[in-house]
Every structure is written in structure tokens, then in C-alpha cells.
Amino acid sequence: MPSGKKVKLILYEVLQFAALIVPIFVIMERFASLIYNMKGRDQTAYWLVVAASIAYVTSVTLLVWAPVRYMTIKQRGFIREVKQWRPTALAYLILCTLPCFAILIASSKVQVDRGQRLDSFSELPVSLVLFFLIWVDIIERIQPCKLMGKSDSLDSDFDISGPVLTHMEPVTTVSSQMNPEEGQNGVTQGQPEAKNGSASSRFHDVANSLPRTRFTSTAYLYSSTSRPLSYSGRPSILWKRDGRSEIFVDSFLFWFDTVEMVRVAGLPSVFYSGWVFPVYILAFLSTLRMIITPHNPLLSSAGFALQDFPFFVFRVALIAVFGFVTPVLYPLKNVLVSLAFIYFTFLTRLKIFRHRSLF
């Protein structure tokens, strides 16, 4: 009977492979139906597209996906040195997400050139592409964790029994709080220096008797890194938390902005116009953040450069041309996140913003 680790490995591999092939088959079948209707119900055109999709999936699986997964599992070749990015995520984006977005753009172009509006691909195909993209991201994040029992790989990151200080004030040294008539060694001038370790003992007593500067600040109360204290009693079940379940929430929240951008492309006014090209291009660029490992410092800069700033500019242009095709909440989110990134990353390092008297 296979061990639990092998069962988990097989399960993850099957789910990731399904995420690779299902969106391609669904998108290509929908595209084949579109060509079938545009060609006067020509069966040959339909089956040519279906055969092309089968050939594509077979070739990329054998030539790219299987070798990448093998080297990732066995830690062979350059995969052994990879720590800051995820090769499986990169392979998935190139082999699945990019071709699916390309087929969606080609579907729009074919219909516009023919002067027909038969299918805007607004529901099932696009939803499947985005869902399996999120699913692969979740699998990549949860893979180091156990599926049964208490998580041992995320306890250090999620289960902290108390608040985490994110702002610490300078600590006043012991020597700066001594009386002026005391020397550097903590011995009062005019008194004989202690022998046989008594000086160090007296220094330890003085250090313990002096008031200490406490690391107290109310900033950590409002920080996202603060953790609730442990509680006991009957309501303690409400305070239970596990990092594995939080991975699912974080992953969906991580992709909601991209999901909204792709949703706009499904509107007929946008899909049958030239604006569909930049929509899917920007959406694919935002998916490149998936390559970076979670909690990587580079993720913040990538979010600003690949998502928030270009999304804000493009959404303002969409609203100016088509009206409120996207809620105002999303461009407001993009501009606030962009301004916060610029201010806290760059402006706070300037001399004028480092004066404590300002705030």
C-alpha cells in the first residue's frame, strides 16, 4: 500500500495536470464550434481544431510539462538552486494561460473580420481558465503542508501566540543613564576598583536597577502582522485558525483584480473592439506575479509594476471610452495601492519625510 506522501504527491500531480489540459480543451472546443458555425457547419474545420488541441496537449505534456515536474520533484538540474521563483507556475502560464488568452483574442479577431457576433466567450471558458489558474497557485502554496492533522510547516508563520511588534523605538543604553561621576567601567570615581569579578557583578546590579526603555508602540495594534492571543473556554472554537485554510482565501483575494479585468473583456462592447487586445495582454502580465514565491519582497514591486499601475491607467481609459464598464472601486484600489507603494517605499526615505515632528 502506498504511503501518505506518495498518495498526496499523486493527488497533486493529477490535479495540476487536469488544470493544464481542461482549460485548453474547453477553449479549443468552443473555438472549434465558432469556426464550425462560421464555415457553414463544416465538420472538417471543427475536427481539425479539435485534433490540433489534442496534438498540442500531447506534445507539451511529453516535451515540457513532464520533464519540469520530474526535475522539480527530484530536485535535479537548475531546479535545485531555485528558491525565489516557481518553475511549475512559469510552465503553467506559458503552456496553458498564454495559449488560452491567445485563442480568446483570435476568436474576437475572427468574428470582427467576418462581421459576425456569434460568441463572446464570456462565461464558462474564461471562468475555467481563471479557476484552474487559481487552483494551481493554491496547490503550489499548500504542497509543503500535510493534508491530515495539524500543520507543521505553517505553524511558524501563522500560529504566533501574541502580537508581533512592527515598530521599535531606540533603546537607551545603560552607560547613557549612569551618573556623570561614574566612569566607563561602571565604577564610581574615587572608589577603589573591585577585584576578582566584583566589578562585573556590580555592573550587572546597576544595569538591573536602572529603568529600561520598553519596546512599546501602538503601531503594532493596527498592523497586518499582529496575531491574536490564545483564548480558552467555550468560545475557543471561534479562535481556531490554520494556515492551510487561509491559503485558499489568500489565493482567491490575490487574483480578484485580474478576474475583474478579464470580466471586462467579456462585455460585447469591449470584446468586439480593439480594446480586447490590451485587456488580455495586461491580464496575462499580471499573472506573471504567480511565478514569484509567496512572501517574497519582490512581490510588492511586481504587483505595482505588473498590475496596479497599468490597471489603473487602462481602467481610466476604459471608463472614458465605454463608460462605467468596470466598478469605480477597482481603479480606486489600484491608485491607492500604487500611491501607498510609492510613498512608503521611496518617499519615506527622503530627508524631509524622516522628521519625527511631522507625524
UniProtKB/TrEMBL annotation:
* Highest taxon, organism lineage: Eukaryota
Q: Which residues fall in a compositionally biased region of kind Polar residues?
A: 185-200
Ranges where the record places region Disordered:
176-200
The reply to whether Transferase figures as a keyword in the UniProt entry is: no
> Which residues are listed as membrane-spanning?
9-26, 46-68, 89-108, 120-139, 272-292, 312-330
- InterPro entries in the record, alphabetically? Uncharacterised_FAM23-like_TM
- Keywords in alphabetical order, please: Membrane, Transmembrane, Transmembrane helix
Q: What is this protein called?
A: Transmembrane protein 236
**Gene name on record?**
tmem236
